[in-house]
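Tutorial, part two.
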Amino acid sequence: MRKLVLAAAALGLVGTVALAASCRIAEVGYYSPQFSSDGRTVVVAVRDARAFVAGFGFESLTPPAHSYITHDRFSIVRLNVADRQAEVLARLPASPLEGAWIDTYRPRVHGSAAAHLRWAAGDSLEYEIAVTRPRQPTSDTYVIRNRWDAAASRWADSNGWERGSAGMGGTERSQLHGRREVVAVGGAGATACAVVIVTEGQSAAEVLAETPACRKAHPDGYHVSALQELLRRADLERIATLEATHARLVAEARARGLSEGDAMLEAIRGMQRLGLYPKPPTVTATRVPAAEASAPVFAISEEEFRVGLFQDLRDAIDHPGEEVEKAGSYAIHRDFDTSRRLNSFLADQRDATFFVETGGAVWRMEVRRP
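Running the prediction step on this input gives:
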């Protein structure tokens, strides 16, 4: 009898533990918030997911949890900056994860998701949303998208959710509007649970939307100092500067009569001179009476130049005193040994000086790497 009582108690304990490890989990997540062109509203992708979860699912401590996803819906929502009112612009069909069992660890009990919004064709909105169902040996990703085909001047909608991979991503300029930047902020879980606006010069962000989970995770509000890893203003402004400067340099080169291709090359060199593009290694040629005894000397025949070897050195000799872009390793030719010897000399040196004898003249070559 005592054994029966103990067995019943053990079964009861197991059942209690299993019940405690089972629960329903709901989650609302925000993805890719973007300002409208006038800055009065923000559009954002919103996920509403719910699941029944059995098992602990603590990574490295217990086996995965068994999660049955009872609800998984996305919508595109417009938030009014002035009064935080929300308007649903589009409700998307249930994701392929709805009604599926998955084995995963917390907090990814709803599977993983990603979304990206961007403006195209004026104030028309493109979107791409992806969900991933974890499996072994490979996971399954499904995507739904709505893109503007500029060449055909039409929308290229996907046929609902399709197996595939996401292609949209990165930062968008519409994350900024004047002195303001809109960002999605995370809480204790893996999904962003609030949309806030950061204004330059202010220490606290303005809340547009948040879930109870985010309010719990940020009881004192959203301090800008804690959001630095999310902010992209510096990157976006740098990209804008690069694009504007490049366009100006191309226009100036075209105004001087250069072809489109030559103007593009001249703009690249100009960007390098301004320090906006990485500067490549250069070689500069100076004619001298004789080579220095301490530096290596390479004799290059006219035939080597004619077969296409050392075109950067040829260009430097034709433009003495000017920096010429240095080529990489020189091609090895079966009839000449100069390339192999010059490659070996330059292999382990950042900057180098050597001499070239060609056409009855001696040239001092200075290689400089930024």
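The CA atoms of residues 176 and 237 lie 9 Å apart. In part three we will examine how such features are distributed along the chain.
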